[in-house]
Amino acid sequence: MANQSMNKDFRTAGAAGFLFIVLLFLVRIVDVAAIGPAGTSVGLSHLNNTVHQLFGFHLFWFTLTEGLGFAAIAVACVFAVVGLLQLIQRRSLAKVDRQLLALGCLYLAVILIYFFFEKVIVNYRPVIMPGYDEPEASFPSSHTMAVCVIMGSAAMLMDRYIRDRNLRTALELVCAFLMCVIVIGRLISGVHWFTDILAGVLISVALLSAFRGVLKMIGRDERRRRSKY
Question: Model confidence over 59-76: pLDDT tens digits?
């Protein structure tokens, strides 16, 4: 049963990754039109323009989601400090919790994806942000991706690092709430096209599903080792 659940996670990750690739190709070749600022072209232009016109631009939601992004980074830093302390105390990277090492790999994947799409630009923002002279890259929504991955993975690790059940449940709900606020808030802020947000969500689902599968694999190995003694 455990293996089936783990395999399901990896299949979900693969499916979400495949859907992201399909979306990427659609955005590049279907209904491309120069509807962005400074004449920038956007794929699936009718869908994206309709959603953007529906919500418009709201600086409040942009500012709020930016602030929540820093909160998510703070959460990531907490886990990084825990891992660093374990490394110092145990004097070996091999003795650091494998869950934290997997988390570090997850964070690295997010960073690499972010820098890749900063260089390989698919879409530009639908608005030129205050203080900028030209549109910025917007596909996928790196803010959506980063916050969802950080908060989603944090929720998955609550069982291991938070012993109090009530506190653990409360923190898991906070993580879920922040993820929802980021996805919705980033969409209605108007600083991203709809397909940017969708792409960020798909990448998040792919990474988090793979991470959950890895956690189950680690847990299975730990149970096997304990059963030998």
Answer: 899 999 999 999 999 999
Identify whether 165 is part of a domain: yes
- Those residues whose C-beta lies under 8 Å from the C-beta of residue 29, and which sit 6 or more positions away, are 43
Cα 73 to Cα 114: distance, rounded to the nearest angstrom: 14
Domain that holds residue 181: 2-32+43-126+135-214
150: pLDDT strictly greater than 90: yes
Most confident segment among 74-83, 150-159, 201-210 = 201-210
Tokens representing residue 55 in the block: 């919500």
Total count of domains within the chain: 1
pLDDT at 2 over 70: no
3-state secondary structure the chain: CHHHHHHHHHHHHHHHHHHHHHHHHHHHHCCCECCCHHHCCECCHHHHHHHHHHHCCCHHHHHHHHHHHHHHHHHHHHHHHHHHHHHHHHCCHHHCCHHHHHHHHHHHHHHHHHHHHHHCCCCECCCCCCCCCCCCECCCCHHHHHHHHHHHHHHHCHHHHCCCHHHHHHHHHHHHHHHHHHHHHHHHHCCCCHHHHHHHHHHHHHHHHHHHHHHHHHHHHHHHHHHCC
